[in-house]
Amino acid sequence: MSFSDTPPTILLADDDADLRDMLEYMLRAQGFRVLTARDGDQALDLIGEHPVDLVLMDVLMPGLSGFAVCREIKSRADTRLIPVVLITCLSNPEDRVEGIECGADDFILKPLHREELLARVHSLVRLKRFTDELESAETVLCTLARSIEAKDPYTEGHCDRLSRCSEALAEQLGLPEEQRIALRRGGIVHDIGKVAVPEHILLKPGPLNEAERRIIEAHPVIGERICAPLKSFRAVLPIIRHHHERLNGTGYPDHLQGEEIPLPARILQTVDVYDALTSARPYRSALSSEYAFSVIRDECRKGWWDARLVDELENLLAFAPGLKAACVA
User: Fold this and answer.
1) Which residues are catalytic?
2) Which three-class secondary structure state does DSSP give residue 88?
3) Going by DSSP bridges, is the β-strand pair 54-58/9-13 parallel, antiparallel, or unpaired?
4) Which of 59, 95, 125, 183 has the greatest number of beta carbons closer than 10 A?
């Protein structure tokens, strides 16, 4: 396997110096960069100091076991996508179950077979590279979304507030992790389709005419189209497309009604309306939280928003002052 750019880095952790040296030689001969650790504590130190593409680690080591190190790696947001291969002489099913539960991506039994070891290493390194490319694409989209937000000084911080508060509301409602992650991402990229809206319309201080309104109302569909190629954004797409719908069918782009509007989209739109009202605009000052909720409830009576979610949001902010502060511009 050849590497056209920086060679992948493998962290090799084993207390057996002879085995460690043999594996290091073998991996370096394949073109890998190798970091070595004699125990679990040193392995965690190295992974905190260097970008790593794969961890190859013995289970039985002094101090922290391979299971404990794997569990720690998989619990950290910045390292949890690094593949971990556990090298073990333990063949009991209980040990394999423990490895799976701590997040290990693969197991290799001792005595080691060179061809099997290298095949698994190459396979997992390729997978890590694909994951890195995916993360890079997501980063580009989020950067684009924030650049759109930055055009208007009155919306500074809007995306981050929506991301944080929408995810918190989803957690309070007991939504599964996939939908919470979708809302975290959706809060950032929900208005990415505005990249196609001319600035003179996007920043117009007065009312829009009919032609300008049609252009603005196309941005959820454009945003969905921009994000559609990313499979990791599959659950985000309905949020992007439907966060401007209204329960009575007067929203856009599809005029959905009631529960036809996906729950994550209704969650984000609830937080979006609250954030808009509690943020300053050229034509008015920011409303207080209490007044904003009274305005939103008036709009609920018109059939626009989900009153249950409005209640849940108010309860969430009432019992989380730190979150409330973060969700008000």
Assistant:
1) 194
2) strand
3) parallel
4) 183
> In the chain, which residues fall in CATH 1.10.3210.10?
152-326
All residues at 6 or more sequence positions from 87 whose CB lies less than 8 Å from its CB, including other chains:
14, 56, 57, 58, 59, 66, 107, 108, 110, 112
CATH number among 1.10.3210.10, 3.40.50.2000, 3.30.450.40, 2.70.50.60, domain 152-326: 1.10.3210.10
Residue 131's CB is within 10 A of a number of other CB atoms, namely 15
Confidence bin at 32 (pLDDT 50/70/90): very high
Work out the pLDDT band at 306, boundaries 50, 70, 90.
very high
> What is the C-alpha radius of gyration for the chain, rounded to an integer number of angstroms?
25
pLDDT digits (tens, 9 = 90+) for 107-147: 888 888 888 888 888 888 888 877 776 666 677 777 777 77
Confidence of residue 286 (pLDDT cuts 50, 70, 90): confident
